[in-house]
Every structure is written in C-alpha cells, then in structure tokens.
Design goal:
binds zinc ion; alpha+beta; 4 helices; 166 residues
Length: 166
C-alpha cells in the first residue's frame, strides 16, 4: 500500500525534476476535474486532463499520442461510512494512481502495480529494445521505486489548494 505522500517521496528520489517545475507557471491548466464518491467500494475518485507541455517529442504510445494526458487518483478508505464525510487524506489513505503520459509509463507504472498503487487496467508491458550502458541508456528507475509524474503531482497540489484533499 502507498499513500500519495509516499508516492511523492518516490518522485523526489527518482524524478525530482517533476517536482522542481511545479507552479512555475508553465504547467498546462488542469481541465475537466471530476471528483466522484463511491461508497460501495469505499473510494473517492478524482479524474482530470492536462495538455502536454510540448517540451518533449511527441510520444509514439497510443495512450499519449493525442497530447492530452488523463490522470486518475483513487483514495481507498477503510470504512465506507467515511466516504463523503471526510476529505481524502494524502498521508493516511491508500491511493491508486494513473496517468497516460510517458513519464508515468516509463518510470513508475510497473513498480506502482507491484505495490497495488496503480489504478485501472494494465498498460502494455515495456520491453526494452536498446542495450544497457555503456552502449545504451541507463534504466529509468533502477531502484524500482513507486512514484508519480509531474501531472499527478500538480493535480495533487491543486486539489490541496482547493481544499478537496487534506
Ligand atoms: Zn503524467
């Protein structure tokens, strides 16, 4: 199990640049935010969309090709009675996350899946096509640490600011 704070700590270790740029005014606005409460499955779900920053060459992955990335955060409560009666907690509630961007895919989804912190369907498994160093690029996340991309980190920040989570 992982909380959002655990996952943010993972990002800090694996991909600190994702946090460095938050709030520098260069993030695309977050669109279509939806917060849904599902008492029966003890879950509060947040859905959102962000446009690609365009700083990186266009992805070839079908999930990311449109230039719009979809985020999902699920807070899984211990008791269904608490759903709707208290805010989701970044430090206490078990969280499952997903983003369709390349960073989430290449750095995190597989390791999140291993600790049950990936939400929704599996992505296609990554099969490395290039050699490891010294010939090729190093592994993205050699310590296999769960975490989140900048889109999810920005969404969390904005949710906290808006008082939707605590
Ligand atoms: Zn992302």
């Amino acid at each position: 199990m992982a909380t959002i704070l655990n996952l943010l700590r993972g990002t800090k270790r694996v991909l600190p640049v994702a946090l460095d740029r938050l709030g520098d005014g260069k993030n695309s606005p977050i669109k279509q935010v939806r917060v849904q409460e599902f008492k029966s499955i003890k879950t509060v779900q947040v859905l959102a969309t962000q446009q690609s920053s365009g700083r990186y060459p266009k992805s070839k992955r079908p999930q990311a090709k449109s230039g719009f990335y979809n985020q999902q955060i699920k807070f899984v409560y211990e008791n269904r009675e608490e759903v709707g009666n208290r805010l989701p907690s970044l430090s206490a509630d078990k969280a499952k996350i997903r983003c369709t961007c390349d960073a989430y895919y290449y750095y995190f989804w597989w390791y999140n899946k291993k600790v049950d912190a990936h939400s929704g369907t599996k992505f296609p498994k990554y099969i490395r096509k290039t050699p490891l160093p010294p010939e090729g690029y190093p592994e993205k996340n050699p310590q296999k640490i769960p975490g989140m991309c900048k889109h999810l980190a920005f969404l969390v920040r904005e949710l906290r600011r808006a008082g939707v989570v605590k």
